[in-house]
Amino acid sequence: MPEVTRDLAGAGLGLRRALLGPLQSMNPASVDFMEVAPENWIGVGGRFGRQFRELAQRHPIVLHGLSLDIGGPDPIDTDLVRAVKRLMSEIGAPLYSEHLSYCAAQGHLYDLLPIPFTGEAAEYVAGRVRQVQDILEQPIALENASYYAQPHAEMSEAAFICEVLAQSGCDLLLDVNNIYVNSINHRYDPVDFLDALPLERTRYIHVAGHYDEAPDLKVDTHGADVIDPVWALLAQVYQRLGPVPTLLERDFNLPPLADLLQEVGRVRQLQQASARRPQARARA
């Protein structure tokens, strides 16, 4: 495959191994791009590797990491970053992103945990982001993460995100469902939160479903359909930015592909509606 990088546009779908078969026979126009965790595909050969690379020839694929541990105490895994760089080159991936969280401390913790919202932590994370970007020779994007307890906060979540992006020069992967989940769990207005972010740095957007543990506790699971308040929040983002590339995440409880494509189609409908309202973005 040529070592080319393709830009993102439109509505995408997270590629999960269980979907490899159905996606092979899908109309390529059904989705505009896909996303994978690079850790699940680096060095994969055989039938799965062949199917993955066939899909990469048909669609741009972005890499969304799970284990870089950008906010953790351990040294950056530079071997992983170099392997990501090779995979990006091989499939022409336009972007590598990670979660603004940490997931290791002398070994992987198998969870995405919150970073303290402090100036010292922002400076520390930004330095690690710059190290990764120097290896990749391009900016990465960081996703605003869901969290359920905050260890320490000298600033707001939005201010912390702004500081990390400003100091590192990285971009934003805006997760709309995470904003909704956090707004319920931590009792803030999700639209005010949007307005506090540097939305112009958004490379693309995640939308997903979650689990209702209680009226005041939502759990980010990617295991259910997107709910109406999250769709409404996505429409708010489009009012500000226009039809930014947006990807549907679904990690388990996978329905038939046709059902997933209906949600991808709803993303497209909202994007098309926002494209017809440029005057709304000018006022936003």
| CATH homologous superfamily annotation | Divalent-metal-dependent TIM barrel enzymes
Query: Which CATH-level-2 architecture?
Result: Alpha-Beta Barrel
**Helix count, DSSP H or I runs of 4 or more residues:** 10
How many distinct beta strands?
Answer: 12
Explain what this protein looks like in three dimensions.
The chain is of the alpha/beta class. It has helices at residues 20-24, 46-58, 78-91, 119-136, 157-168, 176-185, 190-195, 228-241, 257-275, 278-283, and strands at 11-14, 33-36, 61-64, 96-99, 102-104, 108-113, 141-143, 171-175, 202-207, 211-214, 217-219, 246-248. It is globular, with a radius of gyration of 18 Å. Mean pLDDT is 90; it is low at 1-5 and 279-284.
Features:
alpha/beta; 10 helices; 284 residues; two-stranded antiparallel sheet; eight-stranded parallel β-barrel; 41% helix; TIM Barrel
